[in-house]
Amino acid sequence: MSAGITPSQTVGPFLSIGLPWPDGPFVVPEGTPGAVTITGRVTDGAGAGVPDALVETWQADPAGRFGHPDDPRGAPGAGAGTQAGFRGFGRCPTGPDGSYRIVTVKPGPLPSPDGGTEAPHLDVSVFARGLLDRVVTRLYFPDEVAANEADPVLASAGEPARVATLISQAVPGNPAELRFDIRLQGERETVFFDV
Amino acid sequence: MAIHPPPATAGFTLPSYERQPGVHPPLDFADYRSTALRAPSRPLVLLPHRLTEITGPLLGEGRVTAADADLTAGSGGEALGQRIIVTGRVLDSRGNPVPGTLIEVWQANAAGRYAHSADSHPAPLDPNFTGAGRCLTDSEGRYRFLTIRPGAYPWRNHPNAWRPAHIHFSLFGRAFPQRLVTQMYFADDPLFGQDPIFNSIPDPRARQRLIARFDLGLTEPERALGYEWDIVLRGRDGCVFEQRDGQR
């Protein structure tokens, strides 16, 4: 028998009093070799930037490992690819134009319980005034075409145009940056997941 | 620390966190006007829990000091208003305590004003109250804040709209599906009936789970009134690793 869980409520317009951290956007320390900066905008159904949102990310390390006791493969070992200062978690409030940025490293692929492989990805949560619960999406990488095609979660997301909302975009001339816009509603609305 | 089984070469079993339909508010809820342009219009896609979802950030060590749980101590003196203690336990829906998890809170001051540049309510600011706090739950999942009872405040959602007094809470739990942002309310608030955010929760019994209970036994004599509020995060469905729950 389960106890009733506590319901969600909106984060409201004043989340910046309590939630931002100075080091929030840094999944890895600034200057980490191989770091990639993910930038994008959170926009609403009218295409306007959402200036009072919070974007959070969670991901495996470059070896596809989590420093978490429930990972059945055990703790990341020495040489397993875990980098000093890797936190796995990023958090960034949006600016006046709805923009955010996360500094991280690309995670490794993950074994799937059914025997397949998940392409490298981040889980992304968005909190905002007007969202009574967080919305959750996933960010995939544009240089992983074959892995993305074999990914079981992308396969569940619907037609190609919908899947495309989950794949970040390369930034011409800047290999250390990726673009990932999050459209809450309307045209090219981002795919959101029921977690 | 538990000993983990070696990874299987193909196929392994992961825990899953239970879903309780009808507890969380719908994203699209017309009475709360800000949902109109922000709620996704397409149905959510079911995401079965995989490695990224059964793990999550275990943060807080080195990020929290004992002083962070006292919101009443301003830099220039004590905050104004009714001092209250807000305490309780963080549990999962199976009844297990959730230890060592980061809780972050923020709130309006006693006059119903947030220390935020976007709050235009013409109620006084208190230079000794920022309204932000944080703490880690102890080994039994217990937390405790000393703060000021927040005031109600008007907003523009509908004519003569007022938010019931509330404290914002943010919790991580131990895994991604346990992440929760919510609001704690006070018993017998006369503003519940007209508040679309409180009433967005479909199940009236679930709404009651956001209301703190006054407890004279928690009151500090001649100091602060005591309120108790337990928070229940999603627990695991039946799973192979469940025997370890009590050890973490």
What does this structure look like?
- The complex is a heterodimer of chains A (195) and B (248).
- Chain A has 195 residues and is mainly β.
- Chain A has helices at residues 145-149, 152-155, 160-164; strands at residues 36-43, 53-59, 89-93, 99-104, 110-111, 117-118, 121-128, 135-140, 169-171, 174-179, 182-183, 193-194.
- Chain A has one domain (15-183): Aromatic compound dioxygenase (Protocatechuate 3,4-Dioxygenase, subunit A, Sandwich).
- In chain A, strands 1, 4, 9, 10 and 11 form a 5-stranded mixed β-sheet that branches. In chain A, strands 3-2-7-8 form a 4-stranded antiparallel β-sheet, with no helix packed on it. A two-stranded antiparallel ribbon of chain A has the order 5-6.
- In chain A, strand 5 and strand 6 (117-118) form a beta hairpin.
- Chain B is mainly beta.
- Chain B has one domain: Aromatic compound dioxygenase (Protocatechuate 3,4-Dioxygenase, subunit A), CATH 2.60.130.10.
- Helix content of chain B is 4%, strand content 26%.
- Chain B has helices at residues 51-54, 204-208; strands at residues 45-46, 73-74, 77-78, 83-92, 102-107, 132-136, 142-148, 153-155, 161-163, 166-171, 180-186, 211-214, 225-228, 231-233.
- In chain B, a hairpin with an 8-residue loop joins strand 10 (166-171) and strand 11 (180-186).
- The model of chain B is unreliable at 1-9 and 240-248 (pLDDT under 50).
- At the A-B interface, strand 2, strand 5, strand 7 and strand 12 of A face strand 1, helix 1, strand 5, strand 6 and strand 11 of B.
